[in-house]
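> forwarded from #structure-qc
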């Protein structure tokens, strides 16, 4: 379905048909004039249903002039207008709006002015494209009056609002029908509608399995590491969803970059949120979806809550660190390895043991990817006296900067 947005000057008048043979619409709807003595005395509408039965609507002109108009795509709407002479009937100006999907009467607009004799015809304006907004009224007759009969939304629903008869004083007048409908019009000669727009699209957040969500939970992640989760913005509304921008909430960022994006009804926009903690704290942030302008939020889901925790990198020492009994003047060598149990790469280095100590090892360094284990590092214990001994190998822990130790024990 195309987008419908009636901005300044985008309304269009319907084409009233007063003389025509039978008009057949795409959805098995037939429209034709009822005649008597060569004169059009009314309008008839028939629809052949899938079960073969026929539904029929008739509108009698009652001595007046009948006409009809057809518009809309893909849903088709029909209006029947009856203009009767002054004094010929109580309802001398009538427009009936019909949804041709099932021939249900959508709305009836009645104009029966009593302020003057020289009455004018009611008007009907629609949006280009699907024609889902209908703006109708009467220009009035005395003292350049204007009668505004309301804004109607033809989505197979009842009319949104009817303003009733209102006399405008020549200044611009704005009428709000709801949060997302508004009409601004002036008391000028051609009764111009200056601005109106239909309901906005409806944003709905889902996960990669199309389940409705309101948040993304990342859990614990090492400072400097990254993790990504996918979510979707679905347009569940009847009109296009206009996204001006998506505002990141560091350390949570959205990709790809979105600017001035329009989603058709039913369209899904897949997005990725990446979490990169910069400190060892808990994070709770909201990513905002702006639209249709940069200072407003979209209709529906517009704030995605993202949570996660920043943690320190971690390593463990694998290997037998107990040298057990070693005779005086004897020695024994053990090996250990450093395992990176973090989710990021870390660099490590350890200085050589101090001279004269019972435990000796060479300086070591390296870089370990997440889950990787270092080559074996040898430590030698030389027993010089009958006494227990203990030592510690220390490495700076990146990026935290504290030290991790492996303690070694030996005895004679």
């Amino acid at each position: 379905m195309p987008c419908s947005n009636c901005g300044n000057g985008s309304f269009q008048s319907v084409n009233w048909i007063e003389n025509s043979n039978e008009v057949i619409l795409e959805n098995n709807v037939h429209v034709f004039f009822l005649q008597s003595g060569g004169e059009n005395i009314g309008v008839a509408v028939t629809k052949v249903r899938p079960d073969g039965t026929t539904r029929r609507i008739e509108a009698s002109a009652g001595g007046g002039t009948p006409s009809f108009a057809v518009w809309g795509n893909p849903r088709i709407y029909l209006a029947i207008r009856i203009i009767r002479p002054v004094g010929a009937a109580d309802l001398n100006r009538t427009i009936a709006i019909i949804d041709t999907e099932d021939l249900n009467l959508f709305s009836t607009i009645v104009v029966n002015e009593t302020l003057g004799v020289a009455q004018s015809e009611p008007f009907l304006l629609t949006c280009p494209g699907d024609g889902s907004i209908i703006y109708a009224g009467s220009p009035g007759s005395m003292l350049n009056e204007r009668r505004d009969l309301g804004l109607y939304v033809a989505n197979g629903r009842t009319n949104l609002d009817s303003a009733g008869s209102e006399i405008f004083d020549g200044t611009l007048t704005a009428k709000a029908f709801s949060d997302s409908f508004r009409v601004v019009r002036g008391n000028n000669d051609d009764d111009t509608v200056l601005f109106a727009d239909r309901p906005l699209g409806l944003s709905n957040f889902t996960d990669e399995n199309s389940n409705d969500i309101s948040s993304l939970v990342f859990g614990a992640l090492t400072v400097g590491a990254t993790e990504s989760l996918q979510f979707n913005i679905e347009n569940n509304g009847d009109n296009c969803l206009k996204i001006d921008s998506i505002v990141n909430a560091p350390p949570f960022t959205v990709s790809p970059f979105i600017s001035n994006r329009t989603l058709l009804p039913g369209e899904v926009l897949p997005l990725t949120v990446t979490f990169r903690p910069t400190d060892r704290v808990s994070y709770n942030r909201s990513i905002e979806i702006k639209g249709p302008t940069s200072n407003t939020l979209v209709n529906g889901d517009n704030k995605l809550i993202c949570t996660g925790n920043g943690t320190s990198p971690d390593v463990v020492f694998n290997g037998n660190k107990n040298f057990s009994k070693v005779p005086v003047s004897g020695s024994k060598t053990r090996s250990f390895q450093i395992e990176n149990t973090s989710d990021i790469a870390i660099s490590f280095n350890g200085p050589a043991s101090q001279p004269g100590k019972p435990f000796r090892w060479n300086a070591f360094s390296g870089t370990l990817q997440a889950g990787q284990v270092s080559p074996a590092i040898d430590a030698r214990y030389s027993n010089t006296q009958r006494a227990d001994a203990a030592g510690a190998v220390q490495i700076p822990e990146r990026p935290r900067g504290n030290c991790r130790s492996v303690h070694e024990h030996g005895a004679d």
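QC bot note: The CA atoms of residues 174 and 184 lie 4 Å apart. The chain has a mean pLDDT of 75.
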